[in-house]
Design brief:
single chain, two-stranded antiparallel ribbon, two-stranded parallel sheet, 8 helices
Length: 234
């Protein structure tokens, strides 16, 4: 894919001391299941990358035709134990997106409140026409299969956040960041951007606290209809 190998980072870790919300027998079970989870991530992401290659080429062409700029968007996100990594997406915004956003929220109090509530806007001025469709059906997230294959992410886990978003998790931040972030997750199949950050923090924490392989299977099964409907994705 264009943009690979991924660029080096200037700083690769947010300083965190993660304390898992579990111990004893539960911890032993988790330690036994983690290698299985990682093996599944590697096999599934590799198979999906190969199967989706024709679709990737079509989407890449659509992104370039719709709006001038690169095919991929790379943004630093915080991963497991505070390690930062370059998260890959198909580009869904115009080149001067940040300036457009600042202008809109500065002149509209309701938009500013919406942005502060969830760090998302239903009618984001930065998003292109093709980008709107890609986001609605989570197609823009497809390149993150590379992140899963690399070990930056898992297929299922808390969605990765930017450094400035960690504070929104409050006292649950340490536990949430104790897990490898996921391409999908409990929050992602429970409303996504329709939820407040407080609700998101509760769902991400619940995933970490209750994690087992069967929970991952259930989340993956719920992901397909959620992606098709596009609920909460904008």
């Amino acid at each position: 894919m264009n943009g690979l190998p991924l660029p080096p980072l200037q700083s690769d870790r947010v300083q965190l001391e993660v304390v898992p919300p579990y111990s004893g027998a539960a911890l032993r079970r988790r330690l036994l299941q983690r290698p299985i989870k990682r093996a599944f991530d590697i096999i599934a992401s590799l198979v999906l990358i190969l199967l989706m290659l024709p679709m990737v080429l079509v989407v890449a062409a659509a992104v370039v035709i719709d709006s001038p700029g690169p095919i991929f968007f790379v943004q630093r996100r915080v991963g497991r134990l505070g390690a930062e990594f370059p998260l890959l997406k198909f580009r869904t915004m115009v080149a001067d997106g940040e300036a457009a956003l600042a202008e809109r929220v500065a002149s509209d109090v309701e938009l500013l409140r919406e942005w502060e509530r969830s760090r998302k806007l239903r009618n984001d001025p930065r998003v292109t026409r093709v980008g709107t469709f890609l986001r609605r059906h989570s197609i823009d997230e497809m390149p993150q299969l590379i992140n899963v294959l690399r070990g930056d992410m898992s297929l299922v886990g808390p969605r990765p956040v930017r450094t400035d978003e960690i504070a929104y998790f409050g006292e649950r931040a340490l536990e949430i960041l104790g897990a490898r972030p996921g391409l999908t997750g409990l929050w992602a199949v429970s409303g996504r951007s329709d939820l407040t950050y407080e609700e998101r923090a509760g769902l991400e924490y619940r995933y970490v606290a209750d994690w087992n392989l069967w929970l991952d299977v259930r989340v993956l099964m719920r992901t397909i209809p959620v992606v098709v409907r596009g609920r909460g994705a904008y």
